Sequence to fold (109 residues):
Amino acid sequence: MQIQNVLQQMRQLTQANGVENTNAAQQTREPQRVGGADFQNVLTESLRGVNQVQQQATDLQTRFELGDDNVSLPQVMTAMSKSSIAFEATNQVRNRLLTAYQEIMRMQV
Fold:
């Protein structure tokens, strides 16, 4: 996967999970940056979204284990799969960012 695709999916994930985007509020206070959104905010919101997905999966798992009739095994498995995919995507982005940072540090000035 290309890093842009992963970042786009992470943005969609955070928006789908109801994580509010503070980027618009900050853009009114800060001058417009070249290249669009503030990377730090996008990354922070994406990580919050992944954390929220993981917490929801853990909550469903706990409720299922305690015998909640409103939670089925397929719901738990789907939530855990989403959580796993979100974490793996985040890990891949981290690896790509680390590689890019290392390449920049090796550049001669």
User: Anything to note?
Assistant: The two ends are 31 Å apart (CA to CA). Residues 19-28 have pLDDT under 50 and may be disordered.
